[in-house]
Model the fold of this input.
Amino acid sequence: MSYITDTLSNLLQQTAFFNLTWGNYVMIIVACVFLYLAVKKGYEPLLLVPIAFGMLLVNIYPDIMIRPEDASNGVGGLLHYFYLLDEWSILPSLIFMGVGAMTDFGPLIANPKSFLLGAAAQLGIYCAYFLAIFMGFNGKAAAAISIIGGADGPTSIFLAGKLGQTALMGPIAVAAYSYMSLVPIIQPPIMKLFTTEQERKIKMEQLRPVSKLEKILFPIIITIVVCLILPTTAPLVGMLMLGNLFRESGVVKQLTETASNALMYIVVIFLGTSVGASTSAEAFLNMSTIKIVVLGLIAFAFGTAGGVLFGKLMCKLSGGKINPLIGSAGVSAVPMAARVAQKVGAEADPTNFLLMHAMGPNVAGVIGTAVAAGTFMAIFGV
Done:
């Protein structure tokens, strides 16, 4: 009888109920909220579902992220090995290749002024950098946090890993991906605040056709120019442009399909679950995380505002030919930010079509955020 009692007692003690803290329960609730937003509301489910599920798993079973040196059998947890691919910058770089293979750079080539809007939208990164230093973070931590302002999760993970800020990678990545998912909620009020209804109604001229030769040369030239100036951007910019060259060359359709579909989705699963699994209660529920979330929101808001305000300036200089709304797409959330610009413009005038015009700054923002990350790496000698 005692054997049965002891066995049942041991089994009971092994359940998660006796090992969870109040913080774990809080994070489980947060994970369920994220799942609700992804499944019910449709907020970027490809990102939020794996992130939320990784968050759920690690707060029920922390050993799923245990390091080999901390495990009794010398074998690490499943998601620990996924997470190593984040720290080694492998998954963020592969994500960039997939984005390049999926994205048409034609609008940016047709309207090179879009580069200026993409650059202006990086304002939030530098504002957040100095604000983070003021709030007590060291230079490298401030740089890693500030990239959230570019609304670019892979670049945030990439820079945090390169600068040795792995302790902050979880909160930074979750904040970045959360704000990417909430672009349709966060951006419109800021866009409307800084523009008039008349400005939002501006219709832009149709973009000129872009030749196949231009589309092939663009990724090659950008890689050469950017990587010569900032070699540290090669893993991101290089993979982005390689993916785009797959797409535009037309001679490697199998590689294009693999990079933009199967490989992209596999990487998203690995990256999303490992990022979510980095948010254990012990690592996530602290004052630093709160500061990161606040700084990320500030950075994102300033980035959106910077793009819109520069769009207003270009509108004035062009004699009212540029709709300032497209400046908001200068953050890196492709193609979400461009769709939001289209939506807000259509609310002012249902016949207004801004999507293709907004894709120019949107693509420029991806390059701009990678350049900002490369600049920080150069500053800190990484």
